[in-house]
Specification:
By secondary structure, this protein is of the alpha/beta class. The protein contains 11 helices and 12 strands. Strand 3, helix 4 and strand 4 form a beta-alpha-beta unit. Bound molecules: alpha-L-arabinofuranose (AHR).
Length: 331
């Protein structure tokens, strides 16, 4: 049953977007949607905030998409120090304020049931960006827009099997505990490695998406294993770059003595792949603002959308592939 609130808002959103487009196209008057009166769609964006290059690209893309010219009032609420309590506070205040729609990138996978239920009771649709919730109950949100973390991570494992025909001792640098994408990436990696007895998992530890922390963890792991590590799977680019520094400072050569594979596909990682510091980079495409806008417009117009919308991503497996891609990279 589509609520009257959503249907009313949907017609207004469409009117505002049309008005803004018409004004802009005619070159007359302001292209600012506010000139269309109060038909501005308010969007509460419960965001992660500063976390690294991937996050910066993702959140900037949302801001660049949900503009006033496009008929939106985007209320950006980044977490305070990645703290979930600050996100829940912002989420609940958006519900109290009666925004038209909430975008949520959750710092933690669990603990969202009450807030999502409150939004549902207030007939405010919630769209998950990137991060999922656990347990996953898609009656509590409209859709989740993200690349497929398990598939992205599986592509890294499949590359590793091809790069090491006789296996390898490996270590996994994970993102923070309790984050949905970390669990999904472990699942994808393990779905391949569980049937590869020649690949020996020396260990796994979080480095909290941080290059500095990953460098320190890798230094310790190399020392503890007498440098007998041939492969490092870093669940994001920054941690892979930190690991490469530690490998070098241990007197080893990244790409030769130790191959490092990462997820994200940021410019820094592709430059490192081009230079041989990294050996494989799986993109986790952050630029899905247009998809999110389409979902918001459809939802407010009362149209249904799939409960999961997969964002396409690619992989880079050589310096040549990285060099070819770099000129056109947008993040
Ligand atoms: O949720 C996506 C992850 O969060 C990215 O892989 C990482 O770089 C970011 O911090």
């Amino acid at each position: 049953m589509i609520s009257r609130n959503i249907l009313r808002k949907g017609a207004a959103t469409l009117a505002a977007a049309t008005m803004a487009f018409t004004l802009a196209a005619c070159g007359g008057g302001s292209s600012d949607a506010s000139s269309a009166g109060d038909d501005v769609t308010t969007v509460g964006f419960v965001a992660v905030g500063p976390e690294g290059d991937w996050r910066n690209a993702n959140e900037q893309n949302i801001k660049d998409t949900f503009t006033t010219d496009a008929g939106f009032d985007l209320k950006y609420a980044p977490a305070k120090d990645l703290d979930q309590a600050s996100q829940i506070e912002a989420f609940d205040s958006f519900v109290d304020e009666g925004v038209d729609v909430i975008l949520l990138s959750a710092t933690e996978a669990t603990g969202w049931q009450d807030s999502l239920t409150r939004a549902q009771e207030a007939e405010i649709p919630v769209i998950l960006l990137d991060r999922g919730i656990e347990p996953d109950d898609n009656s509590l949100y409209v859709t989740r827009i993200a690349p497929d973390n398990a598939a992205v991570s599986k592509s890294v494992a499949e590359w590793a099997v091809s790069a090491f025909p006789t296996g390898a001792n490996y270590f996994v640098l994970e993102g923070p505990a309790g984050v949905s994408v970390v669990n999904e990436r472990n699942k994808g990696w393990d779905s391949v490695m569980s049937s590869q007895p020649s690949f020996v998992k020396v260990g796994a530890q979080t480095a909290n998406w941080s290059a500095e922390e990953a460098k320190s963890v890798t230094e310790t792991v190399l020392k503890a294993n007498n440098n007998n590590i041939q492969l490092i799977f870093a669940q994001n680019d920054e941690m892979g770059l930190g690991a490469a520094q530690a490998v070098q400072e241990a007197g080893l050569t990244p790409g030769t003595d130790v191959k490092i594979a990462t997820i994200d596909g940021t410019k820094g990682a592709l430059e490192a792949l081009a230079a041989g510091q990294l050996s494989f980079v799986a993109e986790y495409n952050p630029l899905f603002g247009e998809t999110a806008l389409d979902v918001v417009q459809k939802t407010l117009a009362g149209e249904s959308v799939p409960s999961y919308i997969q964002v396409e991503s690619t992989t880079f497996d050589s310096p040549e592939a990285a060099k070819a891609a770099l000129p056109d990279r947008k993040y």
